[in-house]
Amino acid sequence: MGGYMYCIYFLLIVGVKVSAEIGRPRGVSISMASKYEPNDQKIFRCLDGSGTIPYEHLNDDYCDCADGSDEPGTSACTNGKFHCTNAGYTPKNIQSSRVNDGVCDCCDGSDEYEGKIECVNNCKELGKKMREEQDEKRRLQEEGFKKREGFIAEANNMMEGKKLKIQELEKEKTELQDKLKELEAKKAEAEGPEKEAKDKHEQAWKEQKEVRDKERSAIKAREAFDELDLNKDGFVDVLEIIPHMEFDIDSNGVVSEEEAKEHLEDNEKVDFDEFSSRIWGNIQSIYKKLVPDDQKEVPPPPVEPQGETGVPVPNEEPQEDAVDEDKMPEYDEETKALIAAADEARKNHEEADKRSRDIDGEITTLTSYLNTDYGKDKEYAILRDNCYEYTDREYTYKLCPFATASQRPKAGGHETNLGRWGRWENDYKVQVYDHGQNCWNGPDRSVKVHLTCGPEHQLTNAYEPSRCEYAFDFITPCACNQPPQPQDKDPHDEL
Ligand code: MAN
Fold first, then answer.
1. In whole angstroms, what is the distance from residue 248 CA to residue 225 CA?
2. Which of 33, 302, 357, 448 is most buried by a 10 A CB count?
3. Does the residue 329 lie in any domain?
4. What ranges in 229-319 are assigned the alpha helix state H?
5. Using a 6 Å cutoff on CB, does residue 467 contact ligand 1?
6. Whole-angstrom distance between the N-terminal and C-terminal Cα of the chain?
7. Quick check: helix, strand or coil at residue 1?
8. Residue that is last in its domain, among 77, 96, 121
9. What's the structural domain count of the chain?
């Protein structure tokens, strides 16, 4: 051992003695010092009360007490604790076995007083670094807390604004009720004459159409009669009906006399008056409308008449003129004016009615907004109507606070609902979103969002602790409490 080491060793021995004399043996913290103060009898009582020893047996490298309290500064007791003061940094208790084991456990090096290893006291540097980190943390927390206060003020304004808006809307709705009644009356007032004029026009058209249809039918009846009356004797008779296969009732390929007679309403022959009044009405739908057997079920294709086969084919007459004629003519100017007036009254009523429904919707939304619990001081209200995302290897997770949580595969595909806003838990530190999409053979998906203080609103992590039960980490200034002021030191600190 060199002279230098001798010197250190000597100082350490003296140190023990001096330390003991001032009542704090090596390895004892300030808070425990009173328990080690020598009494008149110079007796030390083990801290667990298991025995007493002469005071000079303290730290004599022999374990006397069951709890190891007589050897706070040596490694003699396996269950003992050595206290490093670590001035300038954080005090620390280490296991006695680490005392003089050749490893520097305390930053002040006090655990290695035998000098097996030379420990550099780096407590000051560590303390400086720690304080810098603490200061930075405190600064961020302070900054977050200030933002939080701003958010609270904003939320209160927002709430007041929404309450006022509800009042305004309710007032508007009351006024609208009277207006609606008025517009309803105006609508009814305009629709009466409108209906009357329209009905009149439509009735006139109907009558006109009936007359015209009758005339058309008479012309058609005349044409058919003349075609059927082959011998031009002024009668259509049974023999003149027989060649027309469309009158083959039982489809046996021939029109029998009985069948022909049946079409003539049991007459042998009919003159034009009888034909047009009693026969034509019944046969006009089949006359010259025969379709070949194999096409009976499907509409006939547009084919050219096939004269040489002798089979009559449907012969569609051009309908263009008829279509135009069948269309109701435009309303007259007076009716048009009544319709326009009624349209205007309907529009005005519909607009007011829609506004009334929109107001109801807006009030419902605002009320639901106001009835939501945004934290003790409404500090979390600011997060509503915003969404935040976090992407891991597989999914992008989305949180829309007070609304929904979801998950969508990064590779594309549909979004899975992980839950809707449910409730607060753990004294406003956790939000629960539940009743999400059911998990196959499992629960409905749900998410617990853990909120902690951070400089900005950010979803920082998303994971699935158990299948379909998710957890999100969300940092936000809304969760920042006022940091302890720098002078509020931890009373246990021995700096
Ligand atoms: C999807 C995702 C997963 C979930 C399984 C359960 O793949 O929602 O997060 O674990 O379904 O089947």
1. 19
2. 448
3. no
4. 238-241, 257-263, 272-274, 280-283
5. yes
6. 34
7. coil
8. 121
9. 2
- The response to whether residue 440 sits with its C-beta less than 6 Å from ligand 1 reads yes
Alpha carbon distance 446, 402 (integer Å): 14
pLDDT at 317: 43
Q: Which residue has the tokens 């506004």?
A: 355
Provide the CATH number for the domain around residue 442.
2.70.130.10
Q: How many CA atoms are closer than 13 Å to the CA of 240, on its beta-carbon side?
A: 20
Task: Specify which residues 472 forms β-bridges with.
Answer: 449, 462
Query: Which tokens hold the place of 79?
Result: 């269950």
Please report the pLDDT score of residue 6 as a whole number: 46
Specify if 277 maps to a domain.
Answer: no
| Axis crossing angle, helix 333-370 with helix 123-228, rounded to the nearest 10 | 160
Structural contact between residues 303 and 312, judged by C-beta atoms closer than 8 angstroms: no
Residue nearest atom 4 of ligand 1, based on CA coordinates: 468
Reported residue count of the chain is: 495
Q: What percent of the chain has pLDDT over 90?
A: 81
Residue 374 placed within a domain: no
Write the single-letter amino acid at 66: A
Q: Is residue 252 part of a domain?
A: no
Q: What angle do CA 336, 341, 343 make, to 5 degrees?
A: 90
Write out the H or E segment, with its range, that includes residue 225: helix 123-228
User: How does the average pLDDT of the chain come out, rounded?
Assistant: 88
Residue 467 alpha carbon, nearest atom of ligand 1 = 10
User: Of the residues 63, 94, 121, which one is the last residue of a structural domain?
Assistant: 121
Is the distance from the beta carbon of residue 116 to the nearest atom of ligand 1 less than 6 Å? no
Amino acid symbol at 82: F
Is residue 438 within 6 Å of ligand 1 at its C-beta?
A: no
Q: What is the pLDDT of residues 19-65, one digit of tens each?
A: 444 558 999 999 999 999 888 988 999 999 989 999 999 999 999 99
Based on its alpha-carbon atoms, the radius of gyration of the chain, rounded to whole angstroms, reads 52
345-378 tens-digit pLDDT: 999 999 999 999 999 999 999 999 999 999 999 9
Give which of 381, 482, 369, 493 is closest to 143, Cα–Cα: 482
Please choose, from the candidates 468, 467, 426, 481, the residue with its C-alpha nearest in 3D space to the C-alpha of residue 449: 426
What are the angstrom distances between the C-alpha of 438 and each of 364, 390, 475?
Answer: 28, 22, 28
Look up the domain containing 389 and give its range: 379-479
Share of the chain above pLDDT 70, in %: 86
Please identify, by atom number, the ligand 1 atom nearest to the C-alpha of residue 418: 8
pLDDT in tens, 288-336: 887 665 555 545 454 444 433 333 444 444 444 555 677 899 999 999 9
